[in-house]
Design goal:
The chain is about 50% helix and about 20% strand. It has twelve helices and 16 strands. The strands form four sheets. A five-stranded antiparallel beta sheet has the order 2-1-5-4-3, with helices on both faces. Strands 11-13-14-16-15 form a five-stranded mixed beta sheet, covered by helices on one side. Helix 1 packs antiparallel against helix 7 and helix 7 runs antiparallel to helix 9. Bound molecules: adenosine-5'-diphosphate and magnesium ion (MG).
């Protein structure tokens, strides 16, 4: 048997099964993960987008509220009234109570002189004519400045509104508390890495970002990257991979509100899901490998066993075929030889009669003639024995069918051989199933078989021993065993004993036909004959016959 073939087959089955089951599993895993990742990234993008818009709305609301309140005060009070410090202080207190976040309040005439001022600094009398914001407010009416250091060298910005009276223009200017303002923007700094800050047109930071850069320094992102609408920009473009930026231009002034978020941080949940997914897939793969290897092994082992059994059966079949063919041939040969033998024997009888005559007795070669005739007769007798054995089988090629009682046949056989056995101190035991059903066949042939087996056992034992004949019923079969405690049959001889003319006995004693004939008789009866033996441990011949109820067609 080609063991290599089987191990190659095993490897091939295992590899193929693994390939077929792993491929969809891995594909599914990868596709699911990618799909998930895409969905997640989209969600994160939307979140940042929304954060930027809502923060921008809050900042816009804060600025427009304060612009409106300043405008209202300027509109309802004239220049003369506001230039009075008490009125200004009173207004300052009111607007801080209503809206808050004002640091100071000042009234500036059209030449840029601060006429009146309330606040923590001493800024009365300062001239703002040269400040860029002053020109802006004079021309546009309302102005929110960029953050600048100003006279006080502190980053801040101002909201200024212009009032037009009949004779003059004047400006009401307020400084916004940078801390409060910063806090409003920084509400957008969510999570561990989320940032939010304001940038002006030139890309200068207007509030303090959380992660990199300082107020009034260039921002990490350029406003040019963002369009009119709220836009998200991938950090890779800005040299900040893994970070998403979203920017919204404010409505109240030229500032860009930028919100950023670390994608990795938001993806943490997804990564956890990925770890679980990987664990499930890996353990699934392990389970598949294990079951595949185990089942394939069992399968291949069963195949090997099946083939071994098949080969054994093949060998038995060949043996049976051989025996049957030889049987036919031997029967033919026996017929052919029987006639010449009869003639030879007849002639030797006649020669013997002739030798009895006086003149031949006196012949000098008389004794030689007589010896030769005796030798011829002896050898013809031997040949006849062989032929008789063969013909005993051959003559019954067409066996009779009658009801047979196996136990009775065994008893008869034992009766025939008992004396002979006892003389050699051999004990023949029987252990017969009393309820054995009758079967159909040729009783005389079956008796010949059992006789053969017991005879062989006696021959094998020689002196002192035991032979046991058993009969039993097994399902729809009758099992007969003939076991002896003789020398047994060595393994290499076990097949040969059923061959015709195989004998270990001396020429006059054995023909080597007994087992061969027996084997064929049992086959004809639809049964089986087998041998179990070990050298030195006796031999057991087993006959299994089908139960054919008498009278059945
Ligand atoms: N019970 C047995 N124990 C040991 N050897 C046996 C037994 N039965 C048969 N044999 C062997 O099988 C051979 C063939 O038996 P068989 O066909 O009956 O021919 P024969 O008895 O004429 O030799 C015997 O010569 C003997 O060597
Ligand atoms: Mg024999």
């Amino acid at each position: 048997m080609d063991r290599n073939l089987y191990s190659r087959l095993q490897t091939r089955i295992i590899l193929l099964t693994l390939f077929v089951s792993f491929t969809p599993l891995l594909l599914l895993g990868v596709i699911l993960y990618r799909q998930f990742a895409a969905m997640y990234t989209e969600k994160i993008r939307e979140q940042i987008h929304f954060r930027a818009e809502s923060r921008a709305d809050a900042v816009d609301l804060f600025l427009s509220e304060r612009t409106a309140i300043l405008g209202t005060i300027a509109d309802t009070h004239g220049f003369a009234e506001m230039a009075r410090e008490e009125t200004l202080a009173q207004s300052f207190a009111i607007i801080n109570a209503r809206a808050g976040a004002f640091v100071d309040l000042g009234v500036i005439d059209q030449n840029g002189n601060q006429i009146a001022y309330v606040g923590p600094y001493d800024l009365k009398g300062k001239n703002y004519f040269e400040q860029p914001w002053f020109g802006q407010v004079m021309s546009r009416g309302v102005h929110i400045s960029d953050v600048y250091l100003g006279f006080r060298r502190l980053p801040h910005f101002i909201i200024a509104v212009r009032r037009q009276e009949k004779q003059r223009n004047w400006v009401l200017r307020a400084t916004i508390d940078p801390e409060i303002f910063n806090r409003i923007v920084q509400v957008g700094q969510v999570g561990k890495t989320g940032d939010a800050f304001l940038v002006n047109r030139e890309g200068i930071l207007q509030t303090q970002p959380r992660l990199s850069g300082n107020i009034l320094e260039p921002a990490p992102v350029k406003p040019a990257y963002f369009g009119k609408q709220t836009m998200t920009v991938d950090g890779t473009l800005l040299g900040r991979p893994g970070v998403l930026f979203a920017g919204t231009w404010l409505k109240s002034t030229d500032w860009l509100l930028v919100v950023s978020g670390d994608v990795e941080e938001d993806m943490a949940q997804l990564f956890a899901a990925r770890t679980i997914q990987t664990a499930i897939i890996v353990s699934g793969m392990l389970a598949i490998v294990l079951t595949t290897v185990l089942t394939t092994r069992t399968l291949v082992r069963q195949m090997i066993q099946a083939e071994t059994r098949l080969r054994e059966m093949d060998a038995q079949l060949i043996q049976a075929d051989k025996l049957a063919a030889l049987g036919k041939m031997a029967a033919g040969v026996a017929h052919e030889i029987n006639n010449p033998l009869a003639v030879i024997l007849q002639k030797t009888g006649w020669m013997r009669d002739l030798l009895a005559e006086e003149d031949l007795r006196r012949s000098p070669n008389f004794s030689e003639f007589r010896d030769a005739v005796l030798k011829i007769e002896e050898h013809v007798e031997r040949a006849r024995k062989v032929v008789h054995d063969m013909l005993g089988y051959a003559r019954r090629m067409e066996p009779r069918t009658e009801a047979i009682d196996v136990n009775r046949i065994i008893h008869q056989t034992v009766d025939i051989l008992e004396n002979y056995a006892r003389n050699n101190n051999i004990d023949i035991q029987t252990d017969l199933e009393p309820e054995l059903p009758p079967t159909t066949g040729d009783g005389a042939q079956l008796q010949q078989v059992i006789l053969n087996l017991v005879n062989n056992a006696i021959d094998a034992i020689g002196q002192n021993g035991e032979i046991t004949i058993r009969s039993e019923r097994a399902d729809s079969e009758i099992r007969i065993t003939v076991a002896d405690n003789g020398p047994g049959i060595p393994e290499h001889m076990q097949r040969k004993v059923f061959d015709p003319f195989f004998t270990t006995k001396s020429a006059g004693k054995g023909t080597g036909l007994g087992l061969w004939i027996s084997y064929n008789i049992i086959e004809k009866m639809g049964g089986k004959m087998t041998l179990q033996s070990k050298a030195g441990a006796g031999a057991t011949f087993t006959i299994v016959l089908p139960v054919i109820p008498p009278g059945s067609p």
